Structure formats: structure tokens, C-alpha cells
Amino acid sequence: MNQYYIGPSLSDPEKAFQIEIHLDIPEGVSDLFFPYWRPGRYEPGNFVKWSRNLVIQGEIESLNVQKIQPNHWLLKSPAAQRIKISYEWCFHELNAGSSFMSSELFYVNPVNLFCFLSQSEQEEIELLIEVNEGWKYAGGLPVNWQQDKKRWLLKASCFDQLADSPFAFAPVISKFQWISEEVEFNCHSIGQLPMPWREGDYSSMIQFTDFQVKMMNGFPVKDYHYIFIFTPHRMRHGVEHCNSTMIVMGQGDVSDEVFYDEILSIASHELFHTWNVKYCRPKDLLPYDFTQSQYSGTGFITEGITTYYGELMLWQSGVWSWEKMANCILDWFNIHLNNPGRFSSSLIDSSIDTWIDGYVKGTPGRKVSIYNEGALLAFLTDVFIIKSTSGKKSLDDVMRAMLLNFNTQTRGYTIDDYWHTVEDIAGAVPSQLISLCSQPEDYASEVLTALEWIEQKCRINTSESGRLEVVAIALQEHNKLSNRHC
Ligand SMILES: [Zn+2]
Which of 21, 109, 160, 455 has the most CB atoms at less than 10 Å from its CB? Predict the structure, then answer.
């Protein structure tokens, strides 16, 4: 069994991790890698740069070690044997995708600090963790305390599962638990709780979680963990995982209500990712390959649809008023109208380019956002389906069908698979909708047409308006703003 160890560094115990890994290698050549990137952030991570004093040794025979890329070593062994890899790992930024150590926090995203052998990625892993006795644990994998050795033991079925299971230890972690549709949901929080949670009120979290699980006809995993780290400084960051999400938030200069809305928005977005990307995944990302870039044009589905649903589910579940949803649509629209990048790069091309400038400002007017334009396209697709089926179907049906036909148990999907699914549900897909993601396009005309249709529909029969009622408000708002932005 592959065995990993992590604890505080002896020389720098409040800042750096000490890592030791024991792996079996065969006679001949093996490939040792440091993960190049992490799921949820489609850009090079180059996590190896935070390591130091890395030593690779054979435990029986001498080993020939040759570094051939920053994150790739060739190991040549004269015999099958167990090897030991030891190093320190130190990073000074606390975000939802990092690992961070301080006197009050031991927080690990395994994907950015553990090496692996490409030949034994599928083997079971035992992870031993040395942290202060008495600290509390939050994570997606079950953990056991070994009293005799005074350390924690965590098991993963393979490297992929370990990589997708962040965890944190801290002196105090508050925990709230509930059951929804036979799934155990947990909300773990480190740091100062947001306003309603201080009073023990988690009703909004339960409400949108229940709604999403029911809407998607069930949940792909048996237990789920929202893990929050609340920081004193401003921070907004969440990352999705197979049965958890890591969310790092700090208030900044906003009211309690605005801050709480932002928490709900991120949490709802990350929960929807459990279906849309963790379980129902593009072919380009199935399986994850941590050794190199995995380019995909599907960001408008993985992030765009998730951005749309993150907010939509809050409104549909009754957690948010429809004015709040309307403001989100308006924000997406205004960002689009203010970005000349819409004339330069398509949504699909911008998705492939996240690997070079997807998470930085970059060259002005060069690109669009898989989140922003992706959410607008999801909205337009939803309106199209509702309109063409007289309200009998919606994008919900597309997401449920995608989940049935394309998932980690069967196969990944392509962009064509997605549009074929829309066609199956709606009866047709207008070429203009496809063009909005494959060509540099201005969305204004389509968005305004959709909003106008909704406004008329709402006037005719408010009972039919459902989710779209909100957009009538958006239209009125847009009319006020249009002189400024169009
Ligand atoms: Zn996302």
C-alpha cells in the first residue's frame, strides 16, 4: 500500500509541512510526478515550486533519479523495491485551493503537495497526519485517531480520491449536520461564523441544498461536507470536490446581509458542481490527468451553467427574492456589454485559453469569461427551451438527461453531446445559440429578445412565469441602464 505522511516541519513548524512518501516501484523505469494543476482551476499550478529539500531514495538498492521536467522525475531501479520521498512544502497564501499551516490551522489540499507515481495512481493510499492533539477535523474522507502513535489516519482508494479530498484541522471547528433525501450534509466552519449561523440558523443552507437534490433527482454521494474557513481579511473563493467543497471567505467592506448572500451564492454554486463537473464531466477531463494541461472548450457548461444554477437555485428554492436573481442577470449582462473581448474571442476559445490567462485580467479586450458569458448563454438556452416547449421543459431537463447519459460511471461528454441533449429536450437548437459559444459574439440582441418575451409572458399569465418572472424586473432595470451601456 502506498503510504503518505504529513506533519509540521521540524525546522519551520508553524509555516512548512514535512512530507514523507513510501511507494513500491518495479525494476526498471518509473515516473514520479508533482501535480501540475488542480481540478476547478484550469491553469498551470506548478505546485512543485513550493517544495524544498526533496530527496528520493531506494530503501534497498540505490536509485538513479533524473529530473526531466519541473514536475517529472524518471526513477531507474535495478530491482523492485520500496522507495522513500521526503521534502518540505511551504506556501504563504490561504485560499480555497492552497495548503496552509499556522499556529491555529493545519489545512491541506492534497492535490498541491503530494507526489505520485503514474504507474501506481490506482493503488490504495494510507495517509498519516500529525497535528496537535485535540484539534478538530473537517474533510470529506473519514479519519481515525491512532492513540498509540498519537496521529490521525485517513484512507483513500486511489490518488485521484486523495487529491480530491481536502481537509483541515483547527483547535475549534463548529459543525452543523442535517439529512436531506438520505444524504448526510455537514457544514464545518473555522473562524468567526457569519451572522445567522451565530444564532444557529442554517435554514437557508438546508433550503437550497434540499431543493437542488430534489431537482436533480438525487445526489451522487452519500455524504457531503461544506468546509468554510472564515478569514479576518477580505476573501471570496470556493473549490468543488467529489463530496465536499472548500470555501475561504473574509468579510471586507460589506454588510452582514451582503456577505451572507455571497456565502450562499458560492455554496450553492459549489454544490451544483457535484453533478456538473465532478459526476457529469466533459470527456476532455475524464479522468483527470495531473501530469499535464487538459484543454477543454466546455467551460461554458462546467462553469457557465454552474454559475447560472448557483443563483437560480437560490431564487427557486425561495432563499432569495427574485430581485436578487434579477440583479445577477443584470450584472452578467452589464459585464458582457462592457467587455470588448466579446468581439475578439469566442466562449469556447476563451475556455481553452483559461490555461494561459483565464484567472487574470490579461490583455484588455482579448477574451470573455466562461463564468459570465457562460451564465448568460445558460440563461438564453433555458429561455429558449421554456419558450419552445411552452413551459413544459427547461434547462433542468437537459441537466438531468446529461447526468444520466454522461457521468464518471459511463463516459464523458463533448460539446456536440451537450447540444444534442438540448435538441432532444427542446426539439431543435437554433444555430444562433450555437454561434454564441463558438464565435465572438455580442449577446445584447438575444438577451434583450429573451427579456422582452419574458416580460410579455409575465403580463399575460403570471402563474406561468415561474422562474422567469424575475427577468421582467431585469428588463425594466436594463431599460434604465441601456443608454449608459449599450
Ligand atoms: Zn465553479
Answer: 109
Q: How high is the pLDDT of residue 448? A: 86
287: cis peptide before it, omega within 30°? yes
Residue in the block written with cell 456536440: 416
Predicted pLDDT of residue 323: 79
Predicted local confidence at residue 458, as pLDDT: 57
Give the domain ranges of the chain.
Answer: 2-170, 189-273, 283-485
Distance 340 CA to ligand 1 centre (A): 24
Query: Which CATH class, in words, describes the domain spanning 2-170?
Result: mainly beta
Q: Where are the beta strands (DSSP E) in 191-321?
A: 223-231, 235-240, 244-250
Task: Supply the mean pLDDT for the chain.
Answer: 93
Distance 164 CA to ligand 1 centre (A): 15
How many angstroms separate the alpha carbon of residue 40 from the centre of ligand 1? 7
- H-helix or E-strand spanning residue 404: helix 395-405
pLDDT of 322-372, one tens digit each?
778 878 988 999 899 999 999 999 999 999 999 999 999 999 999 999 999
The strands making up 183-190's β-sheet, listed across from edge to edge, are: 174-180, 183-190, 223-231, 244-250, 235-240
Q: Residues within 5 Å of ion ligand 1 by Cβ?
A: 303, 306
pTM of the full structure: 0.94
Q: Does domain 283-485 have CATH number 1.10.390.10?
A: yes
For 442-455, give one letter per residue: b (16+ CB within 10 A) or e.
ebbebbbebbebbb
Secondary element (H or E) of residue 458: helix 444-460
Q: What is the CA radius of gyration of the chain?
A: 24
How many CA atoms are closer than 13 Å to the CA of 433, on its beta-carbon side?
23
Distance (Å) from CA 305 to ligand 1 centroid: 9
Q: How far apart are CA 30 and CA 77, in angstroms?
A: 8
Ligand 1 centre and the CA of 214: distance in Å?
21
The answer for residues whose C-beta is within 8 angstroms of residue 255's C-beta and 6 or more apart is: none
| pLDDT band for position 18 (cuts 50, 70, 90) | very high
